[in-house]
Amino acid sequence: MREIVLDTETTGLKFSENHRIIEIAALEIIDFLPTGKKFHKYINPQRDVPETSVNIHGITEKFLEDKPLFKEIADEFLEFVGSDNIIAHNAPFDIGFLNFELQKCSRDILLNLSIDTVILAREKFPGQSVSLDALCKRFSIDNTQREKHSATIDAELLARVYIELNDAREPSLNLAVDIEDNMIDTDFNISLLQERNLGSRVTKEEKQLHDEFVETLGKDAVWKKIRNE
């Protein structure tokens, strides 16, 4: 099951006021495993970036001057996302902005199924904070690099939160991701499994790659326990 964890940064809160996307980050996960494949772009919004927004994400108009326009990266983005599920925190915000940008450059809008982690978290933890920071704290995910909002960092943190939310919801799932409490690796360091074929017989090479990956996990990782049984 291929899914795309996605986050954006924008010049403001409402595309109806002609605010624009200035950063997109999207990560591929398959069967709740980050594969290491990602899409990331900064984008020239062809407008000012208000100071109130700069205070949130730190991305200035000057920094974006030489970055591509959305229309120049639209096809690459659509190819990466494909028709797979999109995971986002407050998904209507990100999908709304993306569809606004796609329409402006005469591309088809996203019709992918979207999964909103805000809704998932509220179902799991009713009455409690479901901000990304609060969820990172709940799941002991190190978010100390998140001094300002960043689509790249936020997408990576959200991928970990989404995996944890699904683990809590489906205890029978053997999620092959065990993230140390004090670890942030922007590439997830799981690219060795990128070409795995879960639907076929495991080859010797695949088994070796899997064993090498298991060695990178924490001492209490499920796969280490299974291997030692």
Description:
With 229 residues, the chain is α/β, with parallel strands linked by helices. It is built from nine helices and five strands; from the N terminus they run E-E-E-H-H-H-E-H-E-H-H-H-H-H. A five-stranded mixed β-sheet has the order 3-2-1-4-5, sandwiched between helices. Helix 5 (117-124) packs across helix 7. The protein starts with a strand and ends with a helix. Mean pLDDT is 82; it is low at 168-201.
The CATH topology name reads Nucleotidyltransferase, domain 5
In CATH's first tier, which class applies?
Alpha Beta
Number of domains: 1
Q: Which secondary-structure class do the elements indicate?
A: alpha/beta
Distance between the termini: 28 Å
Report the strand count: 5
Sketch the topology as an H/E string, one letter per element.
EEEHHHEHEHHHHH
Major pleated sheet: 5 strands, mixed
Strand order of the largest sheet: 3-2-1-4-5
Shape: globular
Q: State the helical fraction.
A: 25-40%
Structure described in brief:
With 229 residues, the chain is α/β, with parallel strands linked by helices. The protein has one domain: Nucleotidyltransferase, domain 5, CATH 3.30.420. It has helices at 51-57, 61-64, 70-81, 91-104, 117-124, 132-138, 151-169, 204-215, 222-228, and strands at residues 2-10, 21-30, 33-42, 85-88, 114-116.
Write the layout of secondary structure elements.
Blueprint: E1 2-10, E2 21-30, E3 33-42, H1 51-57, H2 61-64, H3 70-81, E4 85-88, H4 91-104, E5 114-116, H5 117-124, H6 132-138, H7 151-169, H8 204-215, H9 222-228
Parallel strand pairs: 1-4, 4-5
Antiparallel strand pairs: 1-2, 2-3
Helix pairs in contact: 5-7
